[in-house]
Amino acid sequence: MPHLADLDAPHTTVRLGDRPLTVEEVVAVARRGARVEISDAAWERVRASRTVVEDLAEDTVAHYGVSTGFGALATTHIPHEKRTQLQRSLVRSHAAGMGDPVEEEVVRALMLLRVQTLATGRTGIREETLRLYLALLDHGITPLVREYGSLGCSGDLAPLAHCAMVLIGEGEVLVDGAPQPAAEALAAAGLHPVVLHEKEGLALINGTDGMLGMLCLAIHDLHVQLTTADIACAMSVEGLLGTDDVFAEDLQALRPHPGQAQSAANLRAVLAGSPIRESHRDPHACTRVQDAYSLRCAPSVHGAARDTLAHARRVADAELASAVDNPVITLDGRVESNGNFHGAPVAYVLDFLAIVAADVASMSERRTDRFLDVSRSHGLPPFLADDPGTDSGLMIAQYTAAGMVSEMKRLAAPASVDSIPSSAMQEDHVSMGWAGARKLRRSVDALTRVLTVELVTAARGIALRAPLQPAAATAAVIAELDSLASTDPGPDRDLGRDLMACATTVRDGGPVLAAESVTGPLH
């Protein structure tokens, strides 16, 4: 896994055509507006594959997507004079999305991944069409894509079709967050719509780009949050007077999962030199034999989450190296139907990651709850309240975390086991990968907030251990949180505002960077 500094490194330009995209480059374009360019070699491949399509367009033999209808209508031959209408009709009819608009970063990721596939020279797109698609990204013109419409096979049809609508000057877009007709946005940018030719409609809508884009964003975010979970756990161990002995390298090596070793190493690094920990290291002064599972077993759970995330990244890397279209133009110039658009590989790991997020959040919430219960907090006041009874302290923060964990458990139910046949039973098994990606985004967001509650709770618990002082890394994390909202014990205040403020830095990796200012790079 890359380091956080590498994840957030600026990318002023992302180049397509020489090698596959990386997860980090997808995030750079989707979130930070990095520019995109296509290599000269890729443009040559695009032109060569277009020649293949144009030759087939003159063939008396029917070729799917070139001179036929689509899906269950694939046996219908389309004469020359109706083929531009065929492509236009395909895009219009498939832009059938409904619901709320999808986030701009998701649509930008989707667009980038479709541009990458088009630049492989395996789709038969015209250079003119691809250059317009590229221009939409670089001008910040984001098609308005709706929440519902994809079954994850044949790819993300409706979301991609809404993007394709903009290329023909139809549909809606977002510019600087404001909706407007696509035709107006194109004109304002000095861009001109295209008339789609043979095969182009299919090339624009037949891919796993939406679910893959959301997978890339989730991988980036979970990489940050799993490290944050280690930091939060270390602070909880410290604040609850737990032991770091169980995180010893030789003990962890008895179960040699890579992620477990990384998580335990993080815990040791954050807790290093803690005066609070040293205060109860004497076995005669501390009668507890072992800590609860939510503390003691954290490397096993966080580590398994890390290993699952590593698997998801391998799947994403393979998909980022793919040319997903149907039919596809092979390296030797054939046009062949295939099933590579099926979203199963991506859909499965999207579901895996929703399970991971829910379980890590569940363990985090249990650690939070231990701080608030006088029978388990080892001398801390009820609910960490300043004046228990008059003040409720962090009582309801735990409710909030519990509510989110409960929802995450529901979101962990797999989408990929469902399938509803479509297109008159021609498309009789689908992946539901888009739905899996949508629920994973909610789950990753909830994980961030659950970890925020634990961090704020642990920070207050540690403050109540005064005059004992925390580890240097812990102190740095608490200072980062305090820069946005006070974590000191005191009379009740607007707790929701404090938690929301702290969640912004947790989402951006602030606690990780703060801890690393002391420990050096964490895993």
TrEMBL record:
Pfam families: Lyase_aromatic. It is an enzyme of class 4 (lyase). The keyword Lyase applies. PANTHER family: HISTIDINE AMMONIA-LYASE (PTHR10362). NCBIfam families: hutH, PRK09367.1. Belongs to the PAL/histidase family. This is Histidine ammonia-lyase.
